Structures are given as C-alpha cells and as structure tokens.
Amino acid sequence: MITIFGKPLLLLYGQLTLGLINGAFYALLSLGLAVIFGLLNIINFAHGALFMLGGFVAWALLEYLDIGYWPALVLAPLIVGVFGVVMEKTLINRLYKLDHLYGLLLTFGCALIIEGLARNEFGSSGVPYPIPDELRGPLDLGFMMLPAYRAWVVVAAAGVCLATWLVIEKTRIGSTLRAATENAPLVQAFGVNVPRLITLTYGAGVALAAFAGVLAAPIYSVNPNMGANFIITVFAVVVIGGMGSILGSIVTGFGLGILEGLTKVYYPQASATVVFMVMVIVLLARPAGLFGKA
Amino acid sequence: MLEVSGLNAWYGESHILHGVAFDVRAGEVVTLLGRNGAGKTTTMKSIMGLVPRRAGSIRCNGRETIALRPDLIARAGIGFCPEERGIFASLSVTENLMLPRVVAPGGLDLPTIYALFPNLKERAGSQGTKLSGGEQQMLAIARILRTGARLLLLDEPTEGLAPVIVQQIGRTIREIKARGFTVLLVEQNFRFAQTVADRHYVMEHGRVVDMIPNAQLGASMEKLHGYLGV
Ligand SMILES: Nc1ncnc2c1ncn2[C@@H]1O[C@H](COP(=O)(O)OP(=O)(O)O)[C@@H](O)[C@H]1O
Ligand SMILES: [Mg+2]
Q1: How far is B214 from chain A (nearest CA, A)?
Q2: How far apart are CA B90 and CA A180, in angstroms?
Q3: CB-CB: which of A181, A183, A190 is closest to B100?
Q4: B46 lines ligand 1 (CB under 6 A)
C-alpha cells in the first residue's frame, strides 16, 4: 500500500476531497458575507439560514412543481435573492445609522425565525433531495474514484467564485461597488443610486448563499440545521481571510477546507478545532486577517 | 444657475450654517473665502445633500434641490470635487475617471480630458491613490468634467500643493471657464482666487458676510485681511 507520512494514499485523497468540498461551501458562503459586509457594514447572521432556504426552495420546486435540479440551481438563488431584497428593504435598511450590533441582532433574529419555521414544517431530520441523474455514479480519475456529484460541486463553486470575483474586479458595476464600499456618500454624490446598489448587493450575496444551498442539497439532504452547521466555521473563515476581502474569502475558504481534511488524516482529534486555532493565530499575528487591509 | 438662500445646516446638535445666501450665474467662477471652520465645506456638502440635516432653499437651474437625495442632485447637473479629493484606493486611475455617472450630454470626451491632463493618460492603469497629490487633484477635477454637469463645486483644489501645480490648476480653471462651465470654488488663498474668479463671497461663522467683485479685490485688501486674519 502506498503511504504518505505513514498514512494510506487513498485515505489522504478521500479526506482531501471532502475538505475541498467543505472548502467550496466555505468559499461561496464567506464570499457572500464579504460582499455584504463590505458595502452594508452588516455581519449577516442570517446567511446560514438563507443557505438552508436555498436548499428548501430547490426541494419545494421539485416536490410541488416538478422543477428539477438544473433549473433550481438558477431559480432558487433568484427566489431567495428576492426574499433578501425584501428583507433589506423592510428591515435591514432601518439600521444603517445605528451601531453594527443592531444589524447583527436583527439578522440573527431572522436566522432563528427562518430556521424555526423550517424545523416546524419539516422536523429536524429534514427531507432528502436526489442527485441529478447526469451526476450519479463515480468519476474515474485514474488514481482514485470520485463521486461525480462531488466533483461537480467543487467545479461549480470555484466557477461561481471566479465569476463573482471577475464581476467585482473587472466590470463597471464592480468598480462602483468597490468605490461605494470605500466611500458611499461620495459615490452617491456622483449620481449613483446607492440605496438601490445596497439592496441589490444584499440580494446578490444572499443569492450566493442560496446557490450553495442548492449545491449542498443532494449531499447533506435538506435539513433545518444545514446552515447552522456551516456558518460558525464560515465566520471564522471570514475573520481569517479579512473582513470584507473578496479574494481573501475565496482563497481562505478553499484553503481551510483542505486544511481540515488533512487534519482529519493526520490528527483527527483536532479536525473540529483546527480552523479556530488558525483563527486565533491569525488574529494575534495579523488582526486585519490574511488579506485584509489594516 | 445656482441660488442659495436661507441655508441652515446641522451636524447632530451643532448648528453650523445660519442662513447662508449667495448666487452663482451661468458661466461665472465664484469663490467662497473665509477662515478655517467658517463653514465653506459645509456649504458645499449641503449643496450636494451630504450633511445630516439642512433647511432653506437651494435652486439649481431654477429647480429646488433642498429635499433631493445626493444622486438626484448630481443628476440635476452638479459635479463635486471634495476637499479631501476622494480618490478611491481600490480603483485604478481609469476607473476613478469613469466612476461619476454621465448626467447630461455635452461633457468633455476622454481625448479632450487627456489633452488637459496628460499625466492621467500615462498613469491610467495605476491605483488611484498611488498618484502624487497634484495628480490626484487633477484626477478629482477631470472626472467631473466628463459627466455633462455644467456647475462644478471645487473645494480647496490648491490646498497643500506645490506652486507649479497650483499654477496648473489655475490654468485648468480658466480653461474650463472658457469652455462655458460654471464654477463655485472654495479657497483660503485669495491671491490664487484673484487669478481665476469673477466674484468672491466671504464667509464667517456660518454666514455669508460680504461679496466682493474681483475688480475691487485690490481695493478691499485691508477689509479682506480682517476677514481672513492673514
Ligand atoms: N462632520 C462634522 N461633524 C461635526 N462638526 C463638523 C463636521 N464637519 C465640520 N464641522 C464643524 O463645522 C464648522 C465648519 O466647518 P467647515 O465647513 O469644514 O469649515 P471650512 O470648510 O470653512 O474650513 C467647524 O466648526 C467644524 O468644526
Ligand atoms: Mg473646508
């Protein structure tokens, strides 16, 4: 048997794959959080609940309207995005003149309500969601067999992260968003409807979470806790990457997923805490995060 | 072009402007002179809708803008160059230049802007804040010439800059006046103001206390020294 540092190669590959998949979700979720935090200055504690909502919307589309996985991958983020727009316009936009803490409390409250409603409706164990036919079965990579759906999750998440990054770095709407993140009043004095930009940004960040939720549905089944399970780690990812840093959240998300996977192979006892240990070290050495501006 | 009357403005509890009144006619360059803290910047920000609370009347091209949001005020045809220049660090020079929205036809095109400010073309790909102070000021002025706004608010464009750069900004202001722009200029340096402006308003403690046509500035030196404490 081939081993690396005394561990079987296949075990290593297996855990690296799992780590990469978790990393894909960390990256998608922290990316949305970073975009929202950058412009709105709000730590969106409802993010995990909206991720879950994405999964449930995909499930409901299939159950009640017979709309399958591929259309749901587009429709569920749109529907949850609109829900986010309504949330921003009715609740969050009242808080911009107040302390950060209010935004945190409000979105945390929203998360509790959304998750509570889901638990009432579906119970704690949730509902299954099938893997789309096209992605059933394994993919032979030569050195290992990889479930096709898991490979798709990594590719789709990386693609969406890259696309989001390109929009923010290379387009006019992206440069407007970056400018508004720095100095929103001045951007507004240049004729940009900043309140609308804020609403749409919140909607887009939330749509990213819902997209991740649809990706996650066939892997974890759709259940009320799926967001809560991820979100604590995702907040650590955001802190490590640097609050509001786009590139930071993508790189840190994938990187920490892989690090978790490696830890499961070499020192399983620490696999649940390694992300938080990294967070403590980063906060001590670089309080603004790996990619944050001091 | 711009008529301000009875303008009051507040930052929280502090009442900063007390009935500011002045007007700027189309094609004029008009300055607001006054000591530090007189309320010049607050007046500019009030015109743009960037103070927390304001009252009174601000008419731009006959249209009342006192209750409008800043983006709609900009779209009424006003370009704003703030005191701190407001160059965005996360944007390249070109992105900074293209950021303000076009609000009317008739703005300067890019070749004309690059002809006026050749440095900006050379540095097009640089990060906005990597430019020298003078270049940043040029960029801050250049980007509002593109938008088609005919009224420009320039808040202390010469502050902290070397004499050659100040001269270049003076030439720029005369050039844009020649192109028919209207300019409201905040200045502490009345010697510079004298070289570009048609009229001067003097502000003290949140009020406009005097108006001096440029031709009479020489004769009013003593009075002006009193106002400005120089
Ligand atoms: N953001 C602010 N909050 C509270 N007070 C302010 C603020 N900005 C300016 N002020 C006060 O308003 C007064 C006028 O300031 P300003 O308009 O900047 O003067 P000027 O531009 O003529 O130097 C000053 O007393 C200043 O301390
Ligand atoms: Mg000032």
Answers
A1: 30
A2: 10
A3: A190
A4: no
Residue A1 confidence (pLDDT): 62
Q: Does position B68 have pLDDT exceeding 90, yes or no?
A: yes
**All domains of chain A in start order, with CATH:** 15-285 (1.10.3470)
**pLDDT tens by residue, A140-176:** 777 777 888 988 999 999 999 999 999 999 999 999 9
Mutation choice for ligand 1 from B16, B17, B189, CB with most ligand atoms inside 8 A = B16
Q: Which residues of B touch A188 (CB under 8 A)?
A: 69-71, 74
- The contacts of residue B94 (CB under 8 Å, 6+ apart) are B124, B125
Ligand number with the minimum distance to the CA of B53: 1
Q: Which CATH architecture has domain B2-228?
A: 3-Layer(aba) Sandwich (3.40)
Query: How many CB pairs lie under 8 A apart between chains A and B?
Result: 59
pLDDT for residue A170: 93
User: Which CA distances in Å does B114 have to A270, B15, B93, B104?
Assistant: 59, 42, 12, 20
Write the residue with the smallest CA distance to atom 6 of ligand 1.
B11
Q: What percent of chain A has pLDDT over 90?
A: 50
CA A241 to chain centre: 14
Which residues 130-189 of A are in CB contact (within 8 Å) with B?
Answer: 172, 175-176, 178-179, 181-183, 185-189
| DSSP conformation letters of chain A | --EETTEEHHHHHHHHHHHHHHHHHHHHHHHHHHHHHHHH----TTHHHHHHHHHHHHHHHHHHH---HHHHHHHHHHHHHHHHHHHHHHTGGGSTTS-HHHHHHHHHHHHHHHHHHHHHHH-TT-B--PPPGGG-SEEE-SSSEEEHHHHHHHHHHHHHHHHHHHHHHHSHHHHHHHHHHHHHHHHHHTT--HHHHHHHHHHHHHHHHHHHHHHHHHHH-B-TTHHHHHHHHHHHHHHHH-TT-HHHHHHHHHHHHHHHHHHHHH-GGGTTTHHHHHHHHHHHH-TT-SS---
Query: Nearest CB to A186: which of B82, B95, B98?
Result: B82
- Per-residue pLDDT of B79-90, as tens digits, reads 999 999 999 999
CA–centroid distance, residue A1 to ligand 1 (Å) = 75
Q: What are the tens digits of pLDDT across the range A95-118?
A: 888 888 888 899 999 999 999 998
Report chain A residues whose CB lies below 8 A from the CB of B50.
185-186, 189
Residue B175 pLDDT: 92
Mean model confidence pLDDT for chain A = 89
Nearest to A192 among B89, B98, B101 (CB): B101
Determine the Cα angle at B9 with ends B5 and B14, to 5°. 145
pLDDT, averaged across chain B: 92
